[in-house]
Specification:
Structural class of chain A: mainly alpha
Radius of gyration of chain B: 20 Å
CATH superfamily of chain B: Cytochrome c oxidase, subunit III, four-helix bundle
Largest interface: A-B, 47 and 44 residues
Distance between the termini of chain A: 24 Å
Order of helices and strands of chain A: HHHHHHHHHHHHHHHHH
Shape of chain B: elongated
Number of domains of chain A: 1
Oligomer: heterodimer
Order of helices and strands of chain B: HHHHHHH
Shape of chain A: globular
Helix content of chain B: over 70%
Largest sheet of chain A: none
CATH class of chain A: Mainly Alpha
Number of strands of chain B: 0
Structural class of chain B: mainly alpha
Strand content of chain B: under 5%
CATH architecture of chain A: Up-down Bundle
Number of helices of chain B: 7
Bound molecules: copper (II) ion
Number of domains of chain B: 1
Amino acid sequence: MSAATTSQHKGSVNYLNCDYSLKSWLTTLDHKRIGLLYLIAILIFFLIGGSMALMIRYELLTPEGDFLMSDTYNKTFTMHGVALIFFFLIPSIPAVLGNFLLPLMLGAKDVAFPRLNLLSWYVFMAGATLGTIALVAGGVDTGWTFYTPLSSTFAHGAVVLAVSAAFVAGFSSIMTGVNFIVTIHMMRAPGLTWSRLPLFVWAHYATSLIQVLGTPVIAITLFLVGVERAIGIGIFDPKLGGDPVLFQHLFWFYSHPAVYIMILPGMGVISEVIACFARRRIFGYDFVAYSSLAIAVLGFFVWGHHMFVSGQSMYAGMVFSVITFLVAIPSAVKIFNWTATLYKGSIHLTAPMLFALSFMGLFTIGGLTGLFLASMAVDIHLHDTYFVVAHFHYVMVGGQIIAFLAGLHFWWPKMTGRMYPEGLGKLSALVTFIGFNLTFMPQFILGYMGMPRRYHSYPEEWQVLHVLSSAGASVLAAGFLLTIGYLIWSLWYGEKASANPWGAKGLEWQVPSPPPTENFEGKPIVKEEAYHYSPELHEEEKEYEHV
Amino acid sequence: MSEAHVSDTHLPVAHQFEDEEQQFQSYSLGMWVFLAQELLFFGGLFTAFIVYRHMYFDAFVAAHHKLDWKLGGLNTLILLTSSLTMALGVRTAILNNYKATIGWLLATCALAFGFMGVKYVEYSSKIAHNLWPAGDFVFKQEGIDAGGAQIFYGLYFTMTGLHGLHVLVGILIMGWLVFRIYFKRKEVVDYIPIELTGLYWHFVDLVWIFLFPLLYLIG
Ligand SMILES: [Cu+2]
């Protein structure tokens, strides 16, 4: 892509140094600053949820439940899930990288509704505050799924606060979705047709559709749970003949698509990184673009695969099983096309690329094990075991968090104007890959052998596998802490970044690093398709200077 | 969310947009996407209602006979009229006849208050007859499952309550619009916020058009 503006702004005013006051940050309408506000907020919840994961793994070192008593253990894994799903994974890529990049990639000055964008952050913070209060005021022991009647009647602790927290955070997610849909429809630069959009934008469009159409359903469902518990209006109450399975239907109608809110943006990141470091246009661009939409649409019709053993009819189960197999196709289309992009590409193994390759491996394992669980007969054995836990983490951590790290490294120079230390970046990609597999590979075996999720004690013969998993968790934690450490370090001591340190295509690389508040000087005009790379040319021109 | 749109009106074209056309289309698309979200929000409740109606058909029929369809019908009439006054408000705003716009918006507000008044009468009589599902709910009828009836009233109060909340939000937005048109007329140069509020109001009306027969009429 080419833009009319390519001038360099070294040392001049940008979105970071234009105003240093706290007030200017808290009242900013700049999508780039709002992205950073989100980054800080979700980092806090990553650390909270992550430390709970470590506590869980520490407990599971020994077969006896001795470090965390059952009640505390229940609260720990619940808050681990709530913090990381509702307050980290869902906003991670869309609210941070999406906010920062969408207007830049579209050649726009900002998102369509900057005030709504800022409001979404405040709403998110309100939800986050409620969640923190719930944690301090006794915690919740229902699991992040809030199943009734446990949550509405029997559970101890601050259930109402916790569901309110998720409810409020949900509206922040809806606001982001509305904003992105309108931004992508209305704010594209002249010449930037739908078929020229970066795949990151397509992925976010599909994500936003799910955010807008799925989130309100969980909002009303959690609202009903809250009302039942706080006021006593029993919609799901079995005493009245209420149907807990109806809760599960409504819950998973959102929460399965929510998994795609948590993975589609990651797929968008991977497309950008792979195209750049293979120096090739993404193979089968159209297929990759439409597969995002296919995932979003099909994803709304598979929720019943969480309820094969919940008393749902066998025939419903069969339909849900078949559709679940279908939704694997567009995901596989992406993996195949990325692999084909690498073929005969001019591959540069930078840190973002290593993370992207790590994603491809881990997501493939996560996706394929999902098919085990989608087969009804196999699921009856594996349901609610560590096999599910491992599958889910392969997609959520191995998929989304690794993709988030790939994106964070890739656009870090653009966001901060500084390079991260490349050697440490590669080390981090390696350490997280090893730590991750060591943590979760044994859990597949544990689950296959029958270890149920959500228990703090287990028979002695499984200790070896649990110790392996806990050891992996500490390696993984070390990898994450290392990354957080050098990224923060680089803010002050990192090498200054040029406008386009990777020699990447895309409008965001044609503005200075960090970009000025108004993004573009004048109006960019797009004259070519996305990823117009040619490997040989770039090697000669030495436009690719880093590493 | 509509407030966020409305608050941009004192600038003819906000900084992120190129021209009025882009701004107008963005705002209306945003409103439609927001309404799609609203549809799914109520959709969860409608699903629950249909499932339970199927499970406890007799109890639901018996319970709905205790609702006053005349009051419900009156409220339907009130909301339909308010949709008309709202449409006229939008029309006059496009024609730049701000005095008429204020009049129609106030008429819509008055009708909305009327709707809430009727709701108040209905709610009090239900609570007086021990039909508040969270209190001492009493429903005795030969061969009827009282639990099913209690779920019916749980859904009745939740659905009409959330709908009433939307009516209240509509009143607030309209009041704010009237305030801005009256005091800051020179700054309010376009009709977009009024048109967007109109869309919202028609949606609130539409939800009621589905709620009324579902709760009050079908047996
Ligand atoms: Cu699922």
